[in-house]
Every structure is written in structure tokens, then in C-alpha cells.
User: Fold this.
Amino acid sequence: GAVVSQHPSRVICKSGTSVKIECRSLDFQATTMFWYRQFPKKSLMLMATSNEGSKATYEQGVEKDKFLINHASLTLSTLTVTSAHPEDSSFYICSARSAIQSGAFAYGYTFGSGTRLTVV
Amino acid sequence: GENVEQHPSTLSVQEGDSAVIKCTYSDSASNYFPWYKQELGKRPQLIIDIRSNVGEKKDQRIAVTLNKTAKHFSLHITETQPEDSAVYFCAATIHTTGNQFYFGTGTSLTVIP
Assistant:
């Protein structure tokens, strides 16, 4: 089945530094990548949607200058948390969408394994 | 946009009993309803899904029902086992257009041995 490799799985960084999270689709082309954030014991909240080769669309309340998303190829999307602060500590997870067939119910969705970010 | 509500937020059952988790959605255009199981620190795993043209789907101990008129769908787990303990999320989306998933708030299920 489709696999999305997400790295790193865990990262601890100092306040003020930037952290890059990568999601790679290993055996399919991810035309769209959804980036989610999950706080402990909470649901997955969509941060942004990125389509290959175009600018990401951010959800209301998500700072696009703080959470930089790049989707330069059909197999790689990155999320960079710039000038991270302790309140950015969270579980970040990507979900890749691929076209699996034509017609109705034409898309497959595959989650990455998540990145636990801790800002100290 | 879509709004998905999920109840209960926590659920404890004795091993062997059944567990039921319910979700409601607001957008009548939503046509795909997956259920995910997430263990601590892990990615959500798709356990079952249902499309709007079906009222019920079953896979061994897991079943999902959908009432399009009332805009609600439910997850049923029978003969629960300790390894079923996890957080379960429902979601809704307009699958034919490849939209984002709108997730419920999650249910923490604990199966007591």
C-alpha cells in the first residue's frame, strides 16, 4: 500500500530556532499534502493544504510566515516551523492525497508517522 | 464548512462488551466517512470507512452505520479486547473532490481486562 515517510519522528529544539519536517511519498505521487497539528488528547486540526508547485492554503488562524510549507515535487512536502517557541510544541502530521482511480471516490489518503516537536 | 461532533469523549468498557461511538456532521454534501484508531504518539490508522451510498458496513468485530437523513454515523466494536484501547476519530469529507478531512474531537476508549 501507499506509504508516507515523515522525518524526524521526534525533535527537541531551542526557542528561536527553526525546525524542518519532511514528508515523502515513497511509492506514489502526492498531488496534495495536508498538514495537521495535534495537541495532547485533542483532535487533528488542519493547518494548511499544499498542492505540488503552488502556494499552500492556510487555515484561519495559522500564521503562514511562521509555518512555511513547500511542496516542490510530487513526492516531497516540507513544513518549517520558524522561530519556534514553547507554544509550538505539538505533534505534527502530514497526510498525502493521491489519485487512485477516476470517477467517484477517486482519492486515497495516507498519513505520515508524525513528528513530536518539543521547544525548550 | 463541515462540522463534525463526536461523543463520548471517553469510554470505558469491560473486555468482551461492546463499544459505540457516535458522530454527527453538518454538510449534507459529505459522502465519505472514515474512522481512525490512534495509539499514543502514532499515526492514525484507518480501521473502517463508509460511503454515502451505503447504510452499514462490517469488518469482523467492527461495524459502521450511516444515517444520511439525520447526518450521523456510528462506530460499533463488539467483543472488545484490551488492544482495542486507543483514541478513535471519526471524519467526514467530500471524497469525490479530494477535500480535506474534517475530524471529530476523538474518543478515548479503554477496555478493562
Chain A touches chain B at residues 32, 34, 41-46, 49, 91, 93, 95, 97, 99, 104-107, 109, 111-114, 116 (CB under 8 Å). The two ends of chain A are 37 Å apart (CA to CA). The mean pLDDT of chain A is 89. The CA atoms of residues 25 and 75 of chain A lie 5 Å apart.
